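Could someone model magnesium ion with this protein?
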Amino acid sequence: MYGGSLTKQRLVVLGSTGSIGRQTLDIVKTFPDKFELIGLAAGKNYDLLESQIEEFQPKSVYCIEAPPSIIKNKNIQLLSMEQMVCQPNVDIVMVATSGNSGLIPTIKALEKGITVCIANKEVIIMAGDLIKAISKRSGALLLPVDSEPSAIWQCLQGESQPIRRIILTASGGPFYNMNPAKLGNVTPKQALQHPTWNMGNRITVDSSTLMNKGFEVIEAHILFDVEFENIEVMIHPQSLIHSMVELRDGSIKAQISPPDMRLPIQHALFYPEKVQNPRLRTFDTGVATNMELKPLDEAQYPCFTLAVSAGIKGGTHPTVLTAADEIAVDLFLNHHISFTDIPELVNSVLLNHKFSKADSLENIQAADKWARLQTLSLAGMSQ
Ligand code: MG
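Reply:
Sure, complex below.
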């Protein structure tokens, strides 16, 4: 455990070429005497991965189909993500993958008692109860990285009062002011223009439909043991208030900072220590003169409603939700379906799903596979 010790924390970063992965490496670069990067896992962005290997000299690497330049590098060992997190002496794993790819490495790391900083929210949505039970058994820390649950976590540190209500904030996405009748004609390019955050493609589309906010409601329910009826969402276009917690006595705590994921990332990596990062902008009182909070009009965001109801149903429904959404967003980005087809398609898949408990990895993986095939099939795509 970190805590002022002189030894470096040995860190594995899964998803190192994605948005959270790159920003995690930025933190490592800012604090070179605090972390030793021992493993990097990426998908297919080989150019960036190679430059990360050169800069950080990890001992182990994973990528989907390693090119010869990586295979021939004698200083690194090619491992699977599962093998990478199970190496001896790993202290922290940053799970910054997306979709279902972080599921098994997360479970393996937690089983070994290793601290997991989790940015891959699908893992929590798919297997929340399972991974909580594993971390309880092994004593491993499971620390949120997503800005909203991190905000709640930060508000609760040092707080003895129980939570009465959680209020998650949402920017509202690029179509907040658009006439709903025009949403059917939205192009992938328009959906990829998020007003305040610069993120990967799927999460950017999920933020424009507010599916992402529905995922975060499920995530908050799992991580903080708060009933769905006590989790609310408010539109906050400036993305300065990252979420709020109402406590027993009625007081509300909010976490406020400029929209920069490096703060929640470093919060998890350094936990329980808090450090000053000279590279982070400070809060600008000049731009914060108009911090709006408005109620969420759920009718405008059918994906949000779908997500919350799948969360309330529980079992494998959240797994089906996220798998179907991943495929639907991909179909939208490739011009196979329209923007408004996304909730239609995900809803149809959920309606066809037979409830099953999410108490084993096998059940969860079976539901995930079924949902992907079912989504493609309902969209009329050949498999
Ligand atoms: Mg978020």
